[in-house]
Amino acid sequence: MSGFTARIRRTRPAATFAMAARARALRAAGHDVISLSIGEPDLPTPDHVIAAAHAAACAGETRYPPIAGTEACRAAVARKFTHDLNRPVAPNQVLITNGGKQAIFNAVMALIEPGNTVLIPAPCWAGYIQVVEFAGGTPVFLPCSASSGFRLDPARLEAAITPASRLLLLNYPNNPSGAVADPAMLEAIAGVLRRHPHVHVIADDIYEHLIFEGAYHTIAGIAPDLADRIVTLSGVSKSYAMTGWRLGFCTGPADWLAAMGLVQGTATAGVSTISQAAAVAALDGPQDLLIERRAIYRHRRDLVLAGLAAAPHLTFTRPDGAFYAFPSIAGLLGRTSPAGRRLATDDDVADALLDEALVATVPGSAFAMPGHIRLSTAASDDALTRACARIAQFCGAVK
Predict the structure, then answer these.
(1) Exposed, middle or buried: residue 215 (CB in 10 Å: 0-12, 13-18, 19+)?
(2) C-alpha span between 264 and 276 (Å, rounded)
(3) Domains of the chain: which residue ranges?
(4) pLDDT by residue for the chain (399 residues), tens digit each?
(5) How far apart are CA 93 and CA 95, in angstroms?
(6) For the domain bounded by 47-284, which CATH number is listed?
(7) CB atoms within 10 A of CB 224
(8) Terminal-residue alpha carbon distance, the chain
(9) Is Transferase set as a keyword in this record (predicted)?
(10) Residue 65: is the preceding peptide bond cis (ω within 30°)?
(11) CATH for 6-40+289-397?
(12) Which residues, at least 6 apart from 27, have a Cβ–Cβ distance to it below 8 Å?
């Protein structure tokens, strides 16, 4: 079939899902593949969350929901944002979305049109690139060096802003690098934004509870005077292991939020009432599990760093949050894999690791940072230990 729109022609499938699909195919063919390609917790959804969803279904909470979310869910999210931003957030200042990804899609589609540029610190989640290009905008990448811990240099941001700049996308803790924002960096970024009032901000804080060193900070809390230009979003997918429940949420200026609601009403309407009941239980219920699970992910990060410390040709910047490792594989480039494959790019390295070592990773080029690979550490200790051993053996056999 031909004749599809330009937005479809410029939309590319995510490399993370492509690698996961290849891993599944190899596994189905009988190979012992360890997949570290998808950022999905292997831990279970908490029992009390599942119980709340079941109770809601049994109570008949199965009708069409309001587009912006149920009263109970918006109230729970408003309480959360009131705490995080250190200012009152009312339920009518909240939008519930089908996962954090829809919050991003809604925000970008409401704001960006052809001719607009979107400033994206790199490395960045591949989904940002997809949605910006789908909306007709142009991504402008702001490279963040490993020596800086992959944190955005405010001077680089200042230099990149033009009259066409419409939006800055911030993601801390960062996927894929694990970089965490501190107040000094966020205040410096805010200082740049004060000089450029035409630039808006999306703060994607989906990994907010997965910080191993330091504390969670977000730009709307650091710079409340910029609140009328900032959409802050999060969700229950990562922290509460609820990826399949598809529930995200956001807050921001009333006009932008209303426009996002129009996008959502056009595309999907409201979020599952059962998922919203589950989210209320997650947000209002016991929070000790967040501390426990953060400790698990910290342990797994340390396990991976230790397991690959002696791997030839790999160099690491320690991730301080999220559940990824993002090593540089520059030392492998220009060499030959154990099976004789020429390793010219990070795509070559990721392909060779999957085909020869049976470990699925994602090339850094998918995250606008070639010369790296991303490994998800949201897997069991056994899987991570075996994967690291295979990667180290692969690197040691490269010629």
Answers:
(1) exposed
(2) 16
(3) 6-40+289-397, 47-284
(4) 468 998 888 887 777 778 888 888 888 899 999 999 998 999 999 999 999 999 999 999 999 999 999 999 999 999 999 999 999 999 999 999 999 999 999 999 999 999 999 999 999 999 999 999 999 999 999 999 999 999 999 999 999 999 999 999 999 999 999 999 999 999 999 999 999 999 999 999 999 999 998 899 999 999 999 999 999 999 999 999 999 999 999 999 999 999 999 999 999 999 999 999 999 999 999 999 999 999 999 999 999 999 999 899 999 999 999 999 999 999 999 999 999 999 999 999 999 999 999 999 999 999 999 999 999 999 999 999 999 999 999 999 999
(5) 7
(6) 3.40.640.10
(7) 14
(8) 45
(9) yes
(10) no
(11) 3.90.1150.10
(12) 33, 35
Q: What is the DSSP letter of 233?
A: E
Contact 179, 212 (CB under 8 A): no
Question: Position of tokens 């049976």?
Answer: 358
SS3 143: strand
Burial 359-379 (b: 16+ CB within 10 A, else e): bbbbbbbbbbbbbbbbbbbbb
Nearest alpha-carbon partner for 271 in 237, 229, 319: 237
Distance of CA 29 to CAs 15, 23, 25, 33, 116, Å? 21, 10, 6, 10, 46
Say which DSSP state 271 is in.
Answer: -
Decide: 203 and 235 in contact? Cβ < 8 Å: no
CB contact at 8 A, 391 and 378 = no
